[in-house]
Design brief:
Blueprint: E1 34-38, H1 44-56, H2 73-83, E2 87-93, E3 98-104, E4 110-119, H3 121-126, E5 143-147, H4 154-165, E6 182-189, E7 194-206, H5 211-219, H6 233-236, E8 252-254, E9 268-275, E10 279-288, E11 296-299, H7 304-324
Parallel strand pairs: 1-2, 5-6
Antiparallel strand pairs: 2-3, 3-4, 4-10, 6-7, 7-9, 7-10, 8-9, 10-11
Length: about 325
């Protein structure tokens, strides 16, 4: 029996590009992942600070990690490779102050910070009249903003690179606005040489829309109109008009796409930041070439390696002078 060939042309099928797991799709490099731990016994407040830092680093961190006192740095380094961990955040405590080390695995560098002051997320929430922490706030990594680090000094450049790489990069052309819910701000003060570390939630509100209308649109609940003569009174009555705090042009942006039920594309919305903690005041003490070891690139108290070299050179000069005599 003869076979008939189907002459219909097949349409072009666009190939499906599968995203590789564990790869940052913006940079093409390994997705930044971190472990926050300590190698010693900490007081209760620093234990909570450790948990707050783990929550801040979500979703690419081990929240429920349980370390033991007998675990050393090599133990954490052994598990870092199979788990794809790229950064260590190590908390420690001395008699004078607590310290935070931020290290790149497996070969460094390592940045050591002295924590001058800190406030827990609980303390920040208790200081606010209406603390805000939605359930989906930690589903995506925070944005990172660095201010005051552009002086050109080597240690500030290394600090900038370290913190930029500790969170996934974003592509401003393809990023979804709904994924931008948090922001980490680091501000360097040139006079005091201290770094203010802050963690905020991002909230958008449409400009010119009353608070009462926003709640109605978001909740879909029927408003209480029993004391009003007409539905229009719900909007026009004194006290129910525009209560937006965002009529300032500086605090507004024009959205490229819809975000939620209230914020629509091509409309102006106000960007509001609300601190969620933790809060820290840091001082960069030392930068080491390796993972918590190696040559000292920067030391706030003076470069130890240079001091040793100068001391050796002076000793040699003194020995040479003694031989001549």
């Amino acid at each position: 029996m003869a076979r008939f060939r189907n002459n219909k042309k097949k349409g072009f099928v666009k190939p499906v590009v599968k995203k590789q797991k564990g790869v940052d799709h913006v940079t093409g490099e390994k997705m930044p992942k971190s472990i926050v731990f300590t190698r010693e016994k900490l007081p209760g407040s620093l234990k909570q600070l450790k948990m707050d830092l783990r929550k801040l680093m979500l979703p690419h961190t081990a929240v429920d990690l349980k370390e033991k006192r007998r675990n050393n740095l090599k133990d954490f380094l052994n598990v870092a490779g199979p788990l794809g961990v790229t950064h260590f955040l190590i908390l420690s405590k001395t008699e004078t102050a607590p310290y935070l080390k931020v290290a790149r695995t497996p070969q460094g560098p390592t940045l050591s910070f002295k924590i001058h002051e800190y406030s827990l997320a609980v303390d920040v929430a208790q200081s606010q009249l209406r603390p805000r922490c939605p359930q989906d706030l930690f589903k995506n990594s925070p944005l990172i903003v660095l201010s005051g680090f552009g002086s050109g000094e080597q240690h500030l450049k290394l600090t900038t690179i370290m913190f930029q790489n500790i969170f996934p990069a974003i592509d401003v052309n393809t990023v979804k606005l709904s994924s931008c819910q948090r922001i980490v701000l680091l501000n360097y003060n040139k006079d005091t040489k201290l770094i203010d570390f802050r963690h905020y939630s991002i909230r958008l509100q449409p400009v010119g829309v009353s608070k009462r209308i926003r709640k109605f649109v978001q909740s879909h609940q029927v408003p209480d109109l029993k004391n009003l003569q007409d539905v229009s009174d719900f909007i026009t009555k004194a006290g129910y008009g525009s209560e937006s705090e965002a009529d300032d042009e500086i605090a507004t942006v024009t959205l490229a796409s819809d975000l939620g039920r209230v914020n629509k594309a091509s409309s102006k919305s106000a960007v509001k930041l609300q601190e969620i903690g933790p809060r820290m005041t840091l001082q960069l003490i030392k930068i080491e070439e390796g993972l918590c070891s190696g040559g000292v690139i920067f030391n706030s108290y003076g470069n130890e390696d240079e001091k040793k070299k100068k001391a050796k050179e002076e000793d040699k000069m003194n020995e040479g002078d003694a031989e001549e005599d």
